[in-house]
Amino acid sequence: MNKTFFADKQTLEDLNIPGRHKNNSIARIFDKVVTAGGRKLMDTMFQSPLTNADEINQRSGIFKYFTGKAFQFPFTESEFSVMENYLGLGSGSNKVTVGLGILSKKVMQAAAQDTQYEHLNKDICKTIDVLNRFHDFMGRFDDKGSPYSSQIAQIGHIYNNPKLKWLKQEQGVKVLPLFKLIRYDHLLRTGLHAEMKQLTGLIFQLDVYIAVAAVACAKGLSFALALPKDKNVLTVKGVFHPAIDHAVGNSIAFDREANVVFLTGANMAGKSTLMKSFGISIYLAHMGFPVAATFMEFSVKDGLYSSINVPDNLDLGYSHFYAEVLRVKKVAEEVAAEKDLVVIFDELFKGTNVKDAYDATLAITEAFSENRNCFFVISTHIIEVGETLRERCSNFRFTYLPTVMDGLVPQYTYRLTEGITTDRHGMMIIENEGILDIIRGN
To answer: Which residues are in the DNA mismatch repair proteins mutS family domain (predicted)?
Structure first.
């Protein structure tokens, strides 16, 4: 069994990936499924990204196939939940036992106006209706050799089972007589229990495929091409944050000869958003999900680590700086274990003085860069670090997000530019806000 792509809790929180109930989370963006089973399957996919290029491409190929279909899932949540709940109660009993149980419900209905028999009858009729409607829906798939053809064949095999010959004959049924009720209940929940379980699983998959494809179309997402690990390349063009409307896209590329992107720019220039956008694309690409980019191809990696919003820990007595140090140590241990990783560091060592931050950022960045099977995005305000690294290292791409002054007002392009920033507008912004005048009482 293949291992899954790893991202720890800190990384997932930095990128706001899990939690379909969280505002602007990535999971919430894709939470358009209808069925409870589809929702569980979606959660599993988010919890277990893939590290096998063929599996990733196979899944993304199915999603891409559905973007060209514009299918709507054929049931509402309430309609499907009746069948989902009914089949989930599989009796596991023989036909005689099932018959006696239903007969007792029939007697109780007549003797004490009990509603169990009526509810069972309605549930089976609704299940028959859903099964027939799904069969009709699958008749719209005539694409032989498509990425979804294997699932189409599996569904067709289930419906062609001789034990389901009666299904079409009962299309539109509202009430079943007692003996048919006993026969169909035993068949659906016992005799065909394995087939119905397989079928509902395939329906859950279809629910996810249709939902994710719809999101891809609505948000203008694309599908990444996964390459074997030993290719050791990563190119993403026009990457943007999927939760931001009208976001500006940027392009980033890595290979063994240029495995570090060194990013500078002012605080409001968009560095953190760019790094989060990039990290999200890495995670979604390993899921086989559509990514917020115009183009992406990547060699599969073992995992993703970020250090964007590292909190202090007052309970353990950790200062912000010490929490940063522990985070860097954790990543260093993973890199030293010869794992192929993508690492994102936003403003290393901002919890200490400028001299220490300069020395530490320089030493740590240079040491990490020697691990050519890992890709790093590292940002800093200390542009002097970049100048020193440019002299020492040949495997860096130096980039920055510019600040353009409109008179005394800073404007931000959010467009990644080659080089190291020369922007030094911090004091001008402070003066524009009149902070010194406020302090002096002017």
So the answer is: 258-441
| Residues, the chain | 442
Quote the CA–CA distance of 332 and 337 in Å, as a whole number: 9
Q: Tens place of pLDDT for every residue, the chain, 442 residues?
A: 458 899 999 999 999 999 988 888 999 999 999 999 999 999 999 999 999 999 999 999 999 999 998 899 999 999 899 998 888 776 566 665 665 566 566 655 555 555 677 888 899 999 999 999 999 999 988 777 889 999 999 999 999 999 999 999 999 999 988 888 888 988 998 889 999 999 999 999 999 999 999 999 999 999 999 999 999 999 999 999 999 999 999 999 999 999 999 999 888 889 999 999 999 999 999 999 999 999 999 999 999 999 987 665 555 546 777 888 889 999 999 999 999 999 999 988 877 788 888 998 999 999 999 999 999 999 988 889 999 999 999 999 999 999 888 877 888 999 999 999 887 655 455 455 565 566 666 6
> Is 279:341 a contact under the CB 8 Å cutoff?
no
Mapping DSSP to helix (H, G, I), strand (E, B) and coil, where does residue 87 land? helix
Show me where the domains of the chain are located.
77-217, 221-440
Instruction: For residue 77, give every residue at least 6 positions away whose Cβ sits within 8 Å of its Cβ, in sequence order, or none.
Output: 34, 35, 36
CATH class for the region spanning 221-440:
alpha beta
The whole-angstrom separation of Cα 410 and Cα 6 is: 39
What would you measure as the largest C-alpha separation in the chain, in angstroms?
A: 94
Q: Which residue has the tokens 């069969």?
A: 135
Q: What is the dihedral of CA 66, 284, 55, 200, to 10 degrees?
A: -50
**Which residues are 318's β-sheet partners?**
313
* Inter-residue contact 148 to 65 (CB < 8 Å): yes
Distance from C-alpha of 316 to C-alpha of 392, rounded to nearest angstrom: 38
Residue listed under structure tokens 């080089």: 419
